[in-house]
Design goal:
Layout: H1 2-12, H2 21-31, E1 36-39, H3 40-49, H4 51-58, E2 62-74, E3 80-85, E4 94-99, H5 104-108, E5 115-126, E6 128-135
Helix pairs in contact: 3-4
Length: about 140
């Protein structure tokens, strides 16, 4: 009953414009400021030195990561991502930044070796330092 009244009130008080929940979540997410700006090299080094400490600093947080594009790819699920070179931090690790499909045109215009800043929610270390919900600020 209360839910029905709340929905009716919301509709009549101006909530009749069509916006999806995911639109509102993304708008809220990307309007927030990052907690840190780091280089790909620094965040990779932090995870290699002490994964527990790096998770406390970065995991679940929005971070601006700068670096040079090592690759622009799709995974087996067709999820779009770029990798950022750690510039000597590790021969085998990179920052792997995942993007939504609506950014495909912007990713298509990028080039390997290009300097870039990505804004991501850091998930932690999964072979690479992984960022999700990334955008190009």
């Amino acid at each position: 009953m209360l839910l029905g009244m709340a929905i009716t009130g919301w509709y009549y008080l101006g909530g009749n414009s069509v916006r999806t929940t995911s639109d509102m979540v993304l708008e809220s997410y990307f309007s927030r400021q990052p907690i840190a700006s780091v280089t790909a090299r620094d965040i990779i080094s932090a995870y290699e030195q002490n994964e527990v400490s790096a998770d406390r600093s970065y995991r679940g947080s929005i971070v601006d990561v700068s670096g040079y594009i090592a690759s622009i790819k799709k995974d087996l699920s067709d999820d779009l991502y770029i990798t950022l070179d750690g510039a000597g931090a590790s021969r085998y690790r990179s920052v792997q930044a995942y993007f939504s499909p609506d950014l495909a045109n912007r990713l298509a215009s990028l080039r390997k070796g290009q300097a870039i800043v990505v804004r991501c929610r850091i998930e932690g270390l999964f072979i690479n330092v992984r960022g999700r919900d990334c955008t190009l600020p």
